[in-house]
# Entry
Amino acid sequence: MSTAAAPLSGWTVLDLSTGIAGAYCTKLLADGGAEVVVVEPPGGAALRRWSASHTAPAPGGDAPLFTFLSGSKRSVLVDVTAPPDRTLLDALLAAADIVVWEPDSPITADPAYSPTALRRAHRHLVVTAITPFGLDGPWAGRPATEFTLQAWSGGIIGLGRGAPERAPVAVGGRIGEWFAGAHASAATLTSRLRGGAGELIDLSMLEAQILGLTYFPVTFHDALGRPFRDRRRRSVPGIATAADGLVSVGCGTVQQWYDLCAMVGHPEWIDEDTDASITERAAAKAPQIYAWLAEQPVEVVQDLASAFRIPNGPVADGANAPKMDHHLARGSFVTDPRDGFVRPGAPYRFDPPLLPEPGPAPRLGEHTEHYRASANRSCGIRTRSGATEQLPFRGVRVLDLTTFWAGPSCTHYLAMLGAEVIHVESAARLDGTRLIAGVPVSEDRWWEKSPIFAGLNAGKKSVTLDLADDRGRALLAKLAATCDVVVENYTPRVLAQIGLDYPAYRALRPDGIMVRMPGFGTTGPWRDNPAFAYVIEDTSGISWLTGHPDENPVQPYSIGDPNAGVHALNALLLALTHRRRTGAGTLIEAAMVDAALNVAAEQVLEYSANGVLLHRDGNRGPAAAPQNLYQAAGTDEFGGRDCWVAIAIATDGHWRKLREALGTPFWMLDPALSSAAGRRARHTEIDTRLATWCADRDSDDIVRTLWDAGIPVAKVLQPHRQTEIPQLIFRGFFENLTHPITGTARHSTIPARFSAGPYRFHRTHAPLLGQDNHAILTDLGLEPTLLTELCTAGVVGGRPTVGPATVPSSTNR
# Structure
């Protein structure tokens, strides 16, 4: 399709970013058709030279990660110490619509180009600033890396990742930077959609990581008085060794445990008299399960697991991901138009197509003279006018046919920013998050007590319809006709079965937007496979880089769902922008796996372009050396020896500060350690020294000593302790909501603060089951007597006929 028809054609974005988060944000905007100008300092952007394998680009060439993130962009070289270049930059700012800003470059370090200075000088601009903690507050400007932010978020330890006898492990691949970039893009699109005279968007990477790596732990603890999980434990089976390779097999529900027992030849385990949880029962049988898997070829395990509807998949890495039959069948990987390596395609697809074909990445300064000539001819000052609506999605009605985490996280953002979101369930098909809180069915109204459901659905309305009944399906169609947007994450076959596939919806609502979020897409050999987050992580490569090098990969068990949600949100915002211009609706396929392949792209880029297969390395990382978790003195709140601190020495300056903070010990004076390469070569020795230094100190003392010295450090926080972080308190990241069944609890919001508002995101608690049936259905013209009849027949409303023991076996029902 032509660039002129793209949703963001006519938008101009200046990219003043310095890392993956900002570059990925502007990549998503460029993919949508925006003109993105990368403003680079002398020598070029640092990402031009960055390689996770430390492979130097060829002379005159660029690192593959930069090339991937910079497709279709333009490059302008600016030396802010030279007056003509400052004039050029000022002209670019005057003519732009959006600036994406990150600290720590020669350009953004100049006070004249700080976010607040940009807003004062250019009131028309949307300025999206991406920083570790936010622009203001007690932690603003504190040193941090993606790794230390994972520790502060609670994401390293919160979902029990890693064997209890070893250090917990961070999610590999700098995943937090990619996720923050996707959120920055969504916030930028949100601001532009509502119009107004520009604003400052202040995005915190820490808050993004909380949303991506933890599972509403504060709401859970407030509502139920206990943490979601108090111990680390292995996932069984998880990623296991089969006869000819690694295979992923999930066991997340009671039904999946029963099916797993049958699959491995032990149906007698099903009837064992025990009060143990699924996780505990699987762990007790782990030796037998792993022994059975070790005797089977990967293909046999996958075929059997698929037949039993057990989540499963092959384990992707940088070499094999593009060759997997499903990714091949769907064309999930494409060839880079400039450098010819293999790269993921777009994370979402539109019908009719809306995205332009990706163009090549720019050479350093390739477009400088073009923009200098344009600036000399005309300043091209942009203006924006009109009142700003604090709730940008006010007036947008959304039919929410989602469940579990991925889909609801997309629609929850819309609800927090003003959309009317109508969440549809049935008594026989409750949202899966109502069933996973561990609340006994003997408790009164147990289905209303899930903090996970409350965290994902605050601000929404609830309608309950039996979609197995013709009358329920007829009401759903009438409701869909009133909605601007339909979002669903059922398995691909379900929409047609209930009579609401896209052709049916389009006949009801020609300008409607439908977002489909199947795990593996609506086509391809895996299309009907169950798709929990961990299987998405496994089949995209995210898991491959997570874990200790001497063990099988560890499933993050988190990012796969919210990452899918924020990418679906970006696609929906592009579609809303397109509809505003043209009046046309569209169909979006936002497959979970395509979103995951994009944020795991670096592995495929490194293998395809440099021939290097990246491997997991525990808590070490490619950017900082040393980087690791070190055990601190004392016990955690559960009585275990599980207190850790994260330290990341990202620069040679950090190393000098660490040396001084430790009292300049003789071993640190070795000149070989003054460079990152030298420290990386002796990482094990340094780890031993730092572990000894940390062992006699508690976490707070270590953090205080090192952070005051200007070193990136963090306590590995239990996630329900997030509310103790002063920066989150300052920014109001958590808001109190009172629920009629569970009382008052704190709820997380979104990782961005908008200078034009809103200044509070939560207005109503998560809906009680079917609480809005009468209001919404009578608005559709349903007579009260008929509504009563339908309620009596169970077509509308009703008490749940499903309990935790029969939770659906897939995030995509």
About this structure: The first helix runs from residue 20 to 31. Confidence is low (pLDDT under 50) at residues 805-813. The chain has four domains: 3-150+167-215+363-388, 251-310, 397-598+756-806, 625-711.
